[in-house]
Amino acid sequence: MPHSLDTVFRPRSIAVVGASRRPGTIGHQIVANLLRYDYQGVLYPVNPSATAVHAIPAYPSVTAVPGPIDLAVVVVPKEHVLDVVEECGQVGVGALVVISAGFREVGGEGVERERRLRERARHYGMRVVGPNCMGVLSNDPAVRMNATFAPSMPPPGATSFMSQSGALGVTILDYAAEFGIGVREFASVGNKADVSGNDLLEYWGADPDTRVILMYLESFGNPRRFTRIAREVSRRKPIVVVKSGRTLAGARAASSHTGALAGGDRATEALLAQCGVLRADSVEDLFDLAIAFEVLPIPKGERVAVVTNAGGPGIMIADACEAAGLTITDLEEATRARLAEVFPEEASLRNPVDMIASATPESYRVALDAVLSDAHVDAAIAAFVPPLGIRQEDVAAAIIEAAATHEDKPVLAVLMGREGLPQGRAELREAGIPTYIFPESAARALAALVRYGRWRERRPADTPAPRGDPDRVRRILEAARAGGRSRLLEPEAMDVLEAYGIPVVEHAVVRDVAGALEAAERFGYPVVAKAVSPDLVHKSDVGAVRVDLRTPEELGEAVADMLQRLASEAPDARVEGILVSRFLGGGRETILGMTTDPTFGPVLMFGLGGVYVEALGDVTFRVPPLDEGEARDMVRSIRGHALLAGVRGDPPADEEALVDAIRRLARLVDDHPDLVELDVNPFLVFEQGAVAVDARITLAE
Ligand code: ADP
Ligand code: MG
């Protein structure tokens, strides 16, 4: 079935409305680009006062065009756009690319103009790219359309690319042309009045000739739809995103730890990683990744071998690999023996393999073949610095020959030298070996391949997330609202957790010292006493938490002292009772949390907890829903994971208990959209089991 975007990317005829004879104008440049790059369909320049543009007959209006128009590229002044759209609709144009600016981006009447543009186009069933964009491009041999005003055309390839910024789109096309990066289709989406990044993702996801999708994003129009489409498309082909604009951070002053730790960008990071989307840090990085994904197989693991003709580059590459999360693996004994037969004593035959400056093209062939045959090696990087008396083209040919016999293992080349040693580069690229000038670029690209491979291997959750008791939670929330509170009292928050099966410390709320003593008698010492107050956020800051109370005397004294201190230091704080709980020694402190991002909605957090949580900042974020693998990934991806896995003879903490609690939390958050912030700090984890000893929940106002 034809897709509605086919008329955008493979039109049989194009009208350029606002085609111009004047050099330097966009209306001139677009017609020039269509001609220069050999558009395969019929072209109709439309201009009320010219008989010809670029020596092609021009028409005074779209209604005067003699044949059917698939695509109209609109470059007229903003005041005339709506009239043109109306005419296009009447003559049955298939789709519009509106280059003209002066719409939503200028505010005021521009907003209304854009609304009417969308409304008229919908009325006639025309798709719209833009307004305020720089056009579209297709390198398909049957189309060959450059309907942009970019000064260059990238060579054909298997990468499709969308840019939310027009200016960056031009830069990127330039860059692609200069570095020979193949582009299949391109669109600059401008204000996204109709066609969105998500639409393109879906379109290119289904396009068999697009192998890699690149996106320059400034915002997510509809993050939930993005998540759904990206998850599905990433299974089939890689999506690489440069996301700019780190302005998502919630403006709302955060009362929870989670809120304070979750800058908006971390939600973006989490969302992209969960969808298998690879994030590039810069436009340069975007292309470094793209050229790798376009040609290389996905490696089975992260173990790399490096082959070089100089020690320095070998070390630089090894460092860059380790920094990117790859492993410079130990070679098998047999591989080292094989290398020892052919290389001089001065060569270093451990990984990185340094064949020294006397290396010949044949040395590269032998050494690469040896490391690629090694069962410990998943990928190889061949690095070359030019010595005297050997031809780069010959080295390139040797690398190609060796790589060809190991098609399942990616081989990347680092050609260090000015401009990346152009001789041989094209041949390498042609043979499926991406080349880089800098070690870091190659390492990051390879690391991205590894990450993508890991993501794709993960199976979707096989066990459903545990259920909770939504009615019980609803009743607690209603009671709080009835009491005029948007922040739950600690015992209420604990009840909410319990309703979803998240283990909570045994506790009781009492009125006075006598009540506390009686509760402690039931739980057994040692105990903890805390003030319950709607007005205290971080209780320990004001002495409202007394831990490890071992005797009735200690408990009685602590409670009396706490109440007295509160009365003098926080006289306005209402004290609703005293929470007495078991004191649980020996646990490791983690934090479970949730905050609401203005763009993404709920974001879950896990990390090392306790009172220093903000100082440590060792936390990770995910966007619900979560499968089991993602919950486990959260636990394992924090920097301090070693502390949980067990260091210095400590037994490992109960990972299953953490994974289970994270999944239950995700469920809770999903079921109750009016929870806007939640902190369990600490969530104590033991060798067996884990328990919440503190809980804080905020409801939407
Ligand atoms: P807040 O975070 O409001 O200051 P908490 O209830 O988290 O108060 O208590 C402060 C600290 O006391 C916790 O981070 C934890 O180290 C310790 N703590 C509190 N309750 C217990 C308990 N039941 N068992 C062990 N340690 C506890
Ligand atoms: Mg706490």
Briefly, what is this?
The protein has 701 residues and is of the alpha/beta class.
What does this structure look like?
This protein is α/β, with parallel strands linked by helices. The chain has 4 domains: 6-210, NAD(P)-binding Rossmann-like Domain (Rossmann fold), CATH 3.40.50.720; 290-457, Succinyl-CoA synthetase domains (Rossmann fold); 506-582, 2-Layer Sandwich (Dna Ligase, domain 1), CATH 3.30.1490.20; 588-699, D-amino Acid Aminotransferase, Chain A, domain 1. It contains 24 helices and 30 strands. The strands form 6 sheets. It has a 7-stranded mixed sheet with strand order 9-8-11-10-12-13-14, sandwiched between helices. The structure holds adenosine-5'-diphosphate and magnesium ion.
**Major beta sheet, specifics?**
7 strands, mixed
The pLDDT mean sits at 91
The molecules bound to the chains, other than polymers, are: adenosine-5'-diphosphate, magnesium ion
- Give the second-level CATH assignment, the architecture of the largest domain: 3-Layer(aba) Sandwich
Span between termini: 48 Å
Query: Can you tell me the CATH class of the largest domain?
Result: Alpha Beta
* The CATH homologous superfamily of the largest domain: NAD(P)-binding Rossmann-like Domain
